[in-house]
Amino acid sequence: MKKKLAAAFLTLCMAAGTLAGCGGDSSSASGDTSTTGTEENKTEEKGETTEAQESVKMSAEELKSMGLEAEDTDLTGEFTYWSAFTGDSQVWDQSRVDAFNELYKDKGIKCNVQFVPDGAGINNGKLLSAIAGGQAPDLVICDNATAAYSYAANGSFEMLEPYLEQVNLNVDNFFDGCKDVIYYKDEPYLIPQDTNVMLLYYNPDIAKEAGLDPENPPKTLDELDQWAEAMTIQNDDGSYARFGLIPWLDLKDDAFTLPFFFGADVYDADTNKLNLTSPQMVSCMEWLQSYGEKYDPERISSFTSGLGGMFSPDHAFMTGKVGMTITGNWFSNALRVYAPDVNYEVCAVPVPEGGRADSTTFQTNVFAVPKGSQNPELAALFIKFCMSGAVNEDNFAQWRSIPTSDAEFDNVSLTKDGDEMYKLERELANSPENGIPALCSCSAELAKAFVTFREGVIYGNITDIQGELQKLQDKYQTELDNAE
């Protein structure tokens, strides 16, 4: 695979426009890739620091008080780190770097961080250009695991095993679903910082108003559709005052989460084969199509065009314009900060018969060491620092993101405090069905193409779902075969 790096670089640079659409707008340390970050970006442009941003800062003294000490290491020197985070999460990551530098100052170790748009340069080709020009950073963190995995598969990242061994970081106890993204051909290339759980958020007040029982949220797809219809309010002119559910609302750049819940297996790593035409995939697309047909795609488009992003007080769930939405645990922090008076509950994402009930995809930010890194050992030391419970405690408390292993849940304050939402997240995280779908050498391109396909299905441009899926499968299977 190493000898293919130059060819992979040319191929991926040609696809830079494709890659740019896959990561979405990075915003949260939790791995969210769907938010526009409207308000926080305005604040960032003005150079202001919000109360929420102040609350996510950490210091070396705080970490020491929680028992974290510098590793006993002979390593020394400086290394460069590209971070994908923006807004509140940029503040959090900067404080993490500052704390690391303070902790390791006496050892002559320093992390120099740059905040690089579009997934730490992964989605716009900047990282590939840096690698090709011999100017690669020593470490990146990307909020788009699918795109990062494509880089690993195409030889753009270093294999991490020797460096993990040097700093004694063991990933054997990580959730099996996390290992989907860690390993490429049985070798580790990516390390999840933490992970996340996908949930159905619903407003119990709207549920009551619609004659539903908020104590018994929907468990099946049919029940979800019934709730969506009951919550929807249409105006006399045909426009909508409220939708019960717009399934794709907070999954704009997320191609494969909904097919996962339907039971679709997009890619088989053992055979290197795609399966985009399965009954489960077709069923998922037909379900999305049915929402477009039932509620009129033009009216849906008009309704959603003026909505605020996830980290904005104008988000549709916060303003009561939708009664339910499917997204990750990070949304609980957005609600806390931007809509503290909005009542909400969460449950497992409802699925059709034969789907992956009581499970979740793992949405995660991933660390990687680019090819050409001059200090991979220092990069690995920083990764280990970032995996510690003390560093992640605030991350978990703010975003309700979860550790990468079950045992670490017991060390999180939300667990100790008996947080009900966190308890549900732990239950879902332990499902044997969990994973990160569609991870292959063409993941980034495929995800972008699939989002475009999905839009065509929803808005009526694609009617032959099976046929168009077959075309996608043929195209990208050819790419997979040629990469062998």
From TrEMBL:
<feature type="region of interest" description="Disordered">
    <location>
        <begin position="22"/>
        <end position="58"/>
    </location>
</feature>
<feature type="compositionally biased region" description="Low complexity">
    <location>
        <begin position="25"/>
        <end position="38"/>
    </location>
</feature>
<dbReference type="Pfam" id="PF01547">
    <property type="entry name" value="SBP_bac_1"/>
</dbReference>
<dbReference type="InterPro" id="IPR050490">
    <property type="entry name" value="Bact_solute-bd_prot1"/>
</dbReference>
<protein>
    <submittedName>
        <fullName>Extracellular solute-binding protein</fullName>
    </submittedName>
</protein>
<feature type="signal peptide">
    <location>
        <begin position="1"/>
        <end position="20"/>
    </location>
</feature>
<keyword id="KW-0732">Signal</keyword>
<dbReference type="InterPro" id="IPR006059">
    <property type="entry name" value="SBP"/>
</dbReference>
<feature type="compositionally biased region" description="Basic and acidic residues">
    <location>
        <begin position="39"/>
        <end position="49"/>
    </location>
</feature>
